[in-house]
Write a structure and sequence with these properties.
Its main location: membrane. InterPro entries: Vps55/LEPROT. It is a multi-pass membrane protein. By secondary structure, this protein is mainly alpha-helical. The chain has one domain. The protein has five helices and no strands. Helix 2 packs parallel to helix 5 and helix 3 packs antiparallel against helix 4.
């Protein structure tokens, strides 16, 4: 079970991630890199919604569920989009390359913190 130190450490990493994304926008006076925050905040939602929508059967638990796989696909798409969007914006000249690098680093810190929170505070299923 996660303790107070885990919460503090993950919150610190999350704050650094948001700081990097905000600085990537504010230092170069271009707020397009803030779109990365939207993709990383929305990314876990399809996985969460589709895992709630799956049908759980105690007797037939061996097969895969198409709804869960769809949620994982959409989540993966959003995570890749969060990394690819700053690269595309830097390639087209909309943002600076340094802003793109800061935005990618901050976005990966944000999403890794979201994953760590969900893994640390997962409830164990008991029968």
């Amino acid at each position: 079970m996660a303790g107070l130190k885990t919460i503090i450490a993950l919150s610190f990493v999350l704050a650094i991630g948001f700081l990097l994304v905000i600085l990537s926008s504010a230092l170069w006076h271009n707020y397009l890199p803030l779109l990365v925050v939207a993709t990383y905040v929305i990314a876990p939602l399809p996985n969460w919604i589709c895992s709630r929508a799956q049908s759980s059967d105690d007797f037939m638990d061996g097969g895969s569920n198409a709804v869960v796989e769809l949620g994982r696909f959409i989540t993966g798409f959003l995570v890749v989009m969060g990394v690819a969007l700053p690269v595309v914006l830097a390639h087209t000249g909309q943002i600076n390359i340094a802003a793109a690098a800061m935005s990618i680093a901050g976005g990966l810190l944000i999403y890794s913190t979201i994953i760590s929170f969900s893994l640390s505070f997962r409830e164990d299923e008991e029968f």
